[in-house]
Amino acid sequence: MTCSTMPAFNQRIEQALSARKQQGLQRKLHQIEGGNARELHSAGQRYVNFSSNDYLGLATDKQLTSAWQQGLDKYGNGSGASPLVTGFSPAHAELEQTLCDWLGFERAILFGSGFSANQALLFALLEKQDLLLQDKLNHASLIEAGMLSPATMKRFRHNDIEHLEKLLEPSSLVVTEGVFSMDGDLSLLAEIASKVQPESWLAVDDAHGIGVLGPKGAGSCARAGVVPDVLIVTFGKGFGLSGAAIMCSKALGDYLTQFARHHVYSTAMPPAQAFALNKAAHMIQQQEWRREKLAELSDYYDRLLSDCPEYRYTPTAIKPFVVGESDAANDYSQYLKRQGIWASAIRPPTVAPGSARLRVTLTASHTMHDVELLANQLKRLSQEIG
Ligand SMILES: Cc1ncc(COP(=O)(O)O)c(C=O)c1O
């Protein structure tokens, strides 16, 4: 390291931070007290929470908390090692088996997060001669992994099958989300699968669909009647916990066990967490009422707001309220906070310039009254914008 390296880093950091601030795009951490529940407590204030991904209301569910406590009693605190050393327990094995039985795959490989699962898959699988095709709106973890992988990556226009077909070559890897995280719309999975398989592989990241859509909550692919070659499910949203799994064939599972660096060189999730996740997977399959309640709330939201120009229809619990400029999104989010509603502003670069929004999410813990309260305030904002 030369003497000039340090000042260069300092300067770069200062410039980047002040540019962010000037663009009004600065991000901030907020402390959420007492859990990410329907009612949020932060800095001494109470809010109705419309910003969590806890779609099924499991993040603070007492039955699930007690499963985690049982897991702690049984296995202690941490896993103590990576899976291939001594970090893999019967709780991990049972979780893998539950996921395979439920989702219809031969193997499940567990990861500490969806971000690392996505990176592990693309880094382990792709070589220089490969073509990777991704929907333009795929999550940052996928796009970044694609850019850093040795393969050629091309992005097809969002849900544009013709564009995908034009780019497609035999033996490509096509990656899409099941539910798009910022827009709440669905991938056209059946059409995509019919173009892609069997000559190429289809991988679906169903972070926002698993647990929420499809029969028994089996997700976007089950809903569309599609069996992807690889399915990524994450546990930080519908499962109310955290972590992820890559669902795949025995052969790919064996390959990832050998070559997925985020699996081989990373501490396994705590066995108590795997134990709790197994419980969550069963609750999700059995407790249909959570999906029914979400559908009712979603219908009500749609009915109340469909006249607002900022409203976008979605068949999911993610409801973007698109206001355009970042400052406006910030102002509206602050206005809602003063009314006791937490709906975070999502701005570029997370979404395209000019499409800053309030990303409203509904969960099975909300009430009809909550939705009404939110809709009334959003309507008032809409009139103000108009
Ligand atoms: C589509 C999608 N994939 C992957 C991830 C990353 O998952 P995790 O939060 O478990 O790292 C997210 C968001 O968090 C996501 O929205």
Describe the structure.
The strands form 3 sheets. This protein has a 7-stranded mixed beta sheet, sandwiched between helices. Strands 1-2-11 form a 3-stranded mixed beta sheet. The model has no long low-confidence stretch (mean pLDDT 95). The chain is 44% helix and 16% strand. The longest helix is centred in the first third of the chain and has 18 residues. It contains 15 helices and 13 strands. The protein has 386 residues and is an alpha/beta fold. It is globular, with a radius of gyration of 21 Å. Strand 1 and strand 2 form a beta hairpin. The chain binds pyridoxal-5'-phosphate. The site of pyridoxal-5'-phosphate (PLP) has 14 residues, from helix 5. The site of pyridoxal-5'-phosphate has 14 residues, from helix 5.
Give, in order, the helices and strands.
Answer: HEEHHHEHEHEHEHEHEEHHHHEHEEEH
Shape: globular
Please mark out the parts with pLDDT under 50 across 5 or more consecutive residues, or reply none. Answer: none
Mean pLDDT: 95
Which small compounds were modeled alongside the protein? pyridoxal-5'-phosphate
- Count, helices: 15
Give a short account of the largest sheet.
7 strands, mixed
